[in-house]
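Hello forum,

I keep getting stuck at the same step: I have a sequence, I want structure tokens, and every attempt I make locally crashes halfway through. Rather than fight my setup again tonight, could one of you with a working pipeline run this one for me? It's a single chain of 360 residues.
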Amino acid sequence: MTLVKRVWQEPSAFTALAAAWERLVEESAFPTPFMTPAWHAVWWHHFPEGELHLVGWFENDMLVGLASFHLADQRAQCCLRPVGGVEVADYLDILAVRGYEEQIAAALLDHLFSPEAPSWEEILLVNLPEHTPTHRVLPQLARTRGLWTWVDVEDVCPVIPLPNTFEEYLYMLNKKQRHEVRRKRRRLMEAARTVRYHVVRPDEDLDHAMDMFISLHRRSDPHKAAFMTAQMEAFFRDIARLARERGWLHLAFLEVDEQPVATLLCFDYRERRMVYNSGFDPETAPRTAPGVNLVVMDIEQAIATGLKIFDFLQGDEEYKFRLGAQPSYVYRVRIRRDAPPVEEAAGKTSSLQAKPSPAT
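Reply #2:
Ran it on my machine without issues. Output:
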């Protein structure tokens, strides 16, 4: 059946399409909060850049595919990039109902060469999860149309498949790490008068909780302090409010002697806990390992809650794998109309897929 295409260039589309878009997320191969219209609306409110360009495809009036782009200048070229934020959305994708992925990828390429498409030299897709076929299908189709393409592993998202009990989880670890987890918990308990693991409840003051989160986040690492600008803080606060409204928010603290010493900002989404960001008090870290202890407590709570996956999101920090995580990957796909500069092509030989000759 023929797909019907529609194009939107105003942020009001995030609201107008909300119900159909939310349904599409749920029917896609890998639903995440980062692909919802509400997330995109919050991101666009705080980080608008260039021109918005949304393309949707309908079948029998049902939205079956959606590409959410903005047109930005990059290296003095017009580049289509995904809405949602490379730095603040760990998973992004071209949305399609399961089974429609190749059809939507082909329709997107058709659109990009149509009169309704903006002028572009490059498409840069980032944070594409391994669980969807976009990073395979779209480059393959692009090459058959004579486009230059690159596909790279962008980052790793370590994940822990959660068992039914915390004791089973501990025995998923090797003997040395199991001992370390227990030793760190025991040392924490011995070093403090009181220890409290606390998850912020729906009736608690979220602004106050976010004050504590942002303070610990900034104090834990100079890079995190530089990352958490005033603009980024405003985004985080709005995302936390959104997550609470949608029932995703899981904001946890470890309190030692009635003082917060570590925090995790997570999203609980479809039996998956996603660890979005964290912070800890570096002054207490050598004595009580607050960050690791809080993560282990949070894994224990996730198991008790019945969640199935503990997803650390992007980052290959060693502690994640010591705690039993397995790697999953996110990909970057870059597509160009014309040949790249010589120096770029020379540096991309491992992933560059050359433009095919007319005979191929």
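The first helix runs from residue 13 to 16. If your local run keeps crashing, start a new thread with the error log.
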